[in-house]
Structures are given as C-alpha cells and as structure tokens.
Amino acid sequence: MAAMFDASAAQFGGGGFMASQADTGVAMGGPKKFGNQQTMKSVTIKQLAEATSQAMDDQYMLDGEELSNVSLVARIVEAQEAATCLSFKVDDGTGTLDVRYWVDNEESELMQQNKAQWRVDAHVRIHGNVRSFNGERQVVAYSIRPITDFNEVTFHYLHAIFQHEHTTRMNGANPAAPSPMGVKPQAAAVAAPFMAAPAAGGIDAIGDDGLNHAQRLCKQIFESPECANSEVGFTAGEVMGRLNGQLSAQQVKDAVEFLVMECHVYTTTDDDHFKSTNC
C-alpha cells in the first residue's frame, strides 16, 4: 500500500486550514474552457495514477465518478520554461506527476511574479484537468498558488480522505474493504481496547485492515476518547505509556510513522503530537 506522505511530511504539521488563504493570490491561465465545468475533487497523485481510463481520450474514473477538475497539493521538484508553456514535476509523497501551465506570448508583470514563486522546492496548490500526453497522465493547470500556511496541506489530505470515503459509500462500495487512500473505516466501539491479538502469522503479519499488530494497537490509542477529546492529541511517548509495555519504543515510533504516512493520524500543534483522522 503506497504511502500518502513521505518522510518529510512532518513539516506539514497542523490540524486546521486558514480559509482566507484559498481566496488570495490565485493565478489563472491556460485553457479556460476547462474551468468550473464539473465538480472539483481533492486528490493525491497516487489516486490519479490509479484512476481507470475510459475508452474516450482523457476521460478517467475515480471512485465510480468521472474525474475532470482536480485539486492537489505538492512540492515542485523540477521546473522548465518554454515559449508558451511552463512544465513542472511535482511530488506529494504518494508519487510524482507532470504538470503543464500554458502561458501567453506576452508576459505580464503578474506572470513574472508567479514564475518567481513557482520555484523548485516550493509547495503549491494546483487546480487543473487530468489529461494524457504521450501515454502519460498529467495535469493541465489553470491555477497554481504557492502555499504559505502548511495547515492547508493537512486540510487537503483530510479533505481528500473525506471525499474518497463519502463517494465510495454513495456509490455502493464496501466500506469494510481497504481503500486506495490507505484508510479503512473502523468500528466506533472496540470490545477490548488496546488488547487486539496479533494477526495470524505473527506480530509483524499484516491483517485484513492493512495494519500489523503494533500499528493496530497505536491506532486504537489514537482513536480512544482520551485522545479524541484532547486538543493536541498524544505523543508517541504517551501512546507507549498507555500500552503498558506491550511495545518497545522503536515499535511505537515505527508504527506512528506508518500511521502518519497512511494518513490514519495527523500532526497537530507540532511534529510530536498526533490525532486520529477518524475522530
């Protein structure tokens, strides 16, 4: 199961989203005919790679619905400029993707400012359309905006999870089955909290929920009422303390890192406090 975050995801700490940021500094360009014709969907690059291709060119399906306008958050890892097109390769921790942004021959002052912001290692929000070029999927962007508040990154991933779960349920998918997002809805109550038995095959065996024994125990701690009701969540040390010696410090550390990468938990006030995305 591919990870939603890479090892650098800790810099994306924060549990909220400053809505005012989404309304400022938006750069518009490219093929305007694509904009706002269909619902915008928040996605990860992994989801785009797994979207099914239809017989019609540039028509893709995700979670049982046609995929057209998408919103994604990623880091620019390559940037190239041509006379009428800016080309980027972006990475969101789940994969890499080529992005194209068409420009006019006459460059405005605003475009010069935008190009200075769209630099390598900059984190940006991209709105665009899924297209195919030379057999490779890419996004033709009509909006690229630099991210200045990394709470927006957390918000994006949570929103992508919510849209995926909501859409699959609406389209009749089995909610108990593992999803492409790496998230599986859990039962609201756990009969014996924090004492789940290892899956058949040993403590490191992967169960039907996609987790091993250590990951499952830590996930249950993060889903406990105590953590859910805490404003800042739990640290790995607090999780270890509540497990009463069932796991070593390294096992807890590895499990928490996995849960972050699979977006079962997210950072809150800093890189050491976590809360469950299911609470």
Automatic annotation (TrEMBL):
Q: Which residues form the OB domain?
A: 70-147
Q: What highest taxon heads this organism's lineage?
A: Eukaryota
InterPro entries, per database record: NA-bd_OB-fold, NA-bd_OB_tRNA, RFA2-like, Rfa2/RPA32, RPA_C, WH-like_DNA-bd_sf, WH_DNA-bd_sf
Q: Which residues form the Replication protein A C-terminal domain?
A: 173-272
Instruction: Identify one Gene Ontology CC term for this UniProt entry.
Output: chromosome, telomeric region
Where in or outside the cell is it found?
A: Nucleus
Query: Any idea which GO molecular function terms this record carries?
Result: single-stranded DNA binding
Tell me which Gene Ontology terms the entry assigns under biological process: DNA replication; double-strand break repair via homologous recombination; nucleotide-excision repair
Q: Which UniProt keywords apply?
A: DNA replication, DNA-binding, Nucleus
Q: Is the Nucleus keyword given for this protein?
A: yes
Where would you say this protein principally sits, based on its record?
nucleus
What protein family is recorded? Belongs to the replication factor A protein 2 family.
The protein's name in its UniProt record: Replication protein A C-terminal domain-containing protein
Originating species: Tetraselmis chuii
